[in-house]
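Sharing a chain and its predicted structure for anyone who wants a worked example. Both blocks are below, sequence first, tokens second.
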Amino acid sequence: MKLGPITLPWGGGDSHKNDPYWDFFINTPPVDLENSAVEMMRRAPEGNVFPTKSELHTPEITSSHVKELGLYLGADVIGIARLEAGGDHDYPYGVITLVKADYDTREANGIGGQVPTQNALYVTFVLSAWMRELGYRATAVEDPDAEKLAAAANLGTLNAKGRLVTPQFGPRVHVGRVIRTDLPLAADG
């Protein structure tokens, strides 16, 4: 935007297009992982499960509470999928959180490019801690099938490459860790 001889940097368009500092911020991973909040949150230990289970409403009401808390914590979209029994877990439900991402977090490894990952880690950490405080097991894990679970929870569809595409954000979304839990919930899919 130009006002006479003055040019304002925020006047529309992509102001970061030719900015080498922005490119570094988005794409260059930290040399020392101790400078990354993402790594710190990934390594944070989970707490214990409270020994007495809380009295809950119906699974549908509990599910709405889980979703409301997830949105309050910063998820942009949240859903619940039924997990198949067996494998290395015996949790019946998976809570999936989505955070809008301006850059693909698998490719943009800089501190700025990982902000959606950081936000999703915060949401899943606090949400799973709350479930454990209710007396139910809950663990947030990196799941290679997280995008499939998000599609199963009706949060979007998978494109030809197997990537999640949502109605709200298209493919510009980060799928957070899947919270596996035995909290009685109602699956969305």
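Comments welcome. Residues 105 and 114 are 6 Å apart (CA to CA).
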